[in-house]
Records
---
Amino acid sequence: MNDSQSSVGYLIVNAVTADGLIPIENALITISVTDGNNTTLYKVARTDRSGRTEKIPVATPNISLSLSPSEQTPYATVVIEGEKEGYYSNEYINVPIFPGVVTLQQMALIPSDERAQIQDNDTIFYESEPSDL
């Protein structure tokens, strides 16, 4: 996207334990941008002691695309992967990032011993894209 046709949205990832009560410090968060069929590594970040990443800017389509019906999607999508030793990794697919908006993506990581009964299932996939705008 060139500057005259793009805007910026922001992403903050909040990593917590599966029950949502305890923030996970130093979780590795990998963000990739998607454009059609292509996915490109965009940013690698760590969570702070509150379980959050810094506010990460993400290029989005121009906000004017959301003002009237259009064939072009009026938001960007990213893939977010989170991992931490002692926890199962998570992957969130098609997370929407809207121009001028801060997206707070909650990421619940499950301690590996709590899912011992589930075999060969290290990654959980979530579809986060809105179904209709």
---
Amino acid sequence: MKYIVKSSKIAVPIVIDTNILVPSLYMATPLFNFVLSGNLVPIWNEFMRLEAHEIIDRLARRYVERADVSASEVHYLLDLVLRQKGKVPEMPDDWPPHSPDRDDDPFLWAAIAGNAEYIISSDVRHMLKLKNIYGIPIGKPKDFFGWVKIAYPMP
């Protein structure tokens, strides 16, 4: 297993698709809490960060009503979560497609470049159909939590 030891805690490097990340920021899900605690280290690149900011703006009206959180607050949280730690280079233009949706490939590239152990997504049309990329599993949040209990059993 690849892991980062952070003050006697294990921090698992993961890629979080924006379809999971942005709602997690608005709703403060358990996944978001694990990222803030340092137990999960998001792997990301600039393409992913810009896409997340775009989605925050697009969904702002819907989430402000539900969560009573402004888009500017969520932009701040995103930048807090995506500090320089976990940043990887951009996907090369000549990297061959691995997903039918080329916009998914920067996430797959980031997982490989950043030695991610898991990719969390809810994209049933493309990402989840892949099941894995070069041995890195791709699954929904509930699948990830099941995986992490096996990969990192509690003593």
